[in-house]
Amino acid sequence: MPGTILLNVSASFRLRFPRQARSPLPVKPTLLTIPTPQPHWASLQADIEAYLKQTIPIKDPLEVYEPMHRLVFAAPRTAAPALCLAACELVGGQRCQAMDAAAALLLNLANAHAHEEIGQGEGSNIALLTGDGIVPFGFELLARGAGPGSPERVMRVIIEISRAVGSGGLIDSLHMKKSVDGEVESVKRVVEKGEGGLHACGAACGAVLGGGSEEEIERLRKFGFHVGMMRGMAQRALNNEDVEEHRNLALKELHLFKDTDLGIISTFLNFY
Amino acid sequence: MPGTILLNVSASFRLRFPRQARSPLPVKPTLLTIPTPQPHWASLQADIEAYLKQTIPIKDPLEVYEPMHRLVFAAPRTAAPALCLAACELVGGQRCQAMDAAAALLLNLANAHAHEEIGQGEGSNIALLTGDGIVPFGFELLARGAGPGSPERVMRVIIEISRAVGSGGLIDSLHMKKSVDGEVESVKRVVEKGEGGLHACGAACGAVLGGGSEEEIERLRKFGFHVGMMRGMAQRALNNEDVEEHRNLALKELHLFKDTDLGIISTFLNFY
């Protein structure tokens, strides 16, 4: 299950996977003959969480910061923030260059989750306020982390994230979810604006921050979109054919990177 | 009442007020012999609202955008966004340079207001989601508006606004408000983190975007803080002496700008 196996694999352990142009199924762990941990996207997730643990201060007033920690780490995990790091590395960037963007995405998603629970009568007033606090904090991280020469990239990423999590993106998805009639087509639209858009955003932001070309950015955006669709639809136990179709479409977008190490990025196509 | 008289005064009408170094009370409108409207900070507020009306799209899905408009324009007005424009002009900038920052501040405050109502059991789920949508939109406006050469200033402003509205700022104030015991000192702390910090932020951001020097930025930040304290305390009908003290402290900070047109900025010290 994503989010439960949190391996912290150092870059030196990265394995070179055989290309999987025709088979969308990745090499199974049992085929590996060496006992090193497989570099899985969950290891990127673990990096982001470690960064956030260190970055969100535990200070006075504790009634503000303690729930902030709880809310951030209690939210269900999606692969979108980790995809941001993977895309950055795929275009030749360093993982750390995309860390603030990944953290900002995670914070925005944690807020959306907390507020969704409140909408369902489950959350508390504290969660309401706390959620409100972590969204600007995400943008602050991004702005703070902008090194000399990179503000244009950071600016672009702020716009990307705002659109993906705001109206036109995740907010539309959450609105639609309320009135969804169970029809496959309308569930698809919810997933498109939700998981699809969020993973597309994560991948595109990573590629921007890693210094990718416009073509690389757009390919990775599409890869992310299909990864999000695939994961979102599988989660809702939708038609397995649709899931497979998105997996294949995602794989196609990786063709541009065929001479690069596709180890981690291809694990986004697995459900283990 | 601030926010009700929305005069749209063009810059050419700006009046040069006699300096009021000793009397904190501004010249009363009755002393004016010409029938031109007094340039009041409410005119800046009107500019920000006109900008937001034009900027927030009315498009599908209407169930997202229509409440967004309603929420933004229904929130009670504070002077902090208008102060952002006034500070920008005071240091020699153009009003338009600070418009996105003023709009972002207003959007953040509208969200806080909507969520406060939800916390009190008055708001709807729609308001919850809508509030969540307008916060990233504010940051998007800021990032989008960063012209060539100005991203560093915009980055700084994003950090300033995030801190003022997030944990450590407004969020702390809203938390404290819940447990306030009616003691003047604890109400003061609520106002410090709330109105004080928000007006300080507005003024500092305006000065940054208008190209002010570090000294000008810090003076205007203090001016803003005292304006916020003064207005926040007056609103809570706190000790009038405290209100007057903050008004005088605010006035002192304007000394640096004594050779500049203090027309509009001095109207923040009035309650009409």
UniProtKB/TrEMBL annotation, chains A, B:
The cofactor(s) it depends on are: Mg(2+)
Instruction: Give the molecular function GO annotations.
Output: metal ion binding; prenyltransferase activity
Q: Write the record's keywords in alphabetical order, separated by commas.
A: Magnesium, Metal-binding, Transferase
Top-rank taxon, per record: Eukaryota
Q: Does the keyword Heme apply?
A: no
Annotated coiled-coil positions are: none
Q: Which family does it belong to?
A: Belongs to the FPP/GGPP synthase family.
Q: What is this protein called?
A: Uncharacterized protein
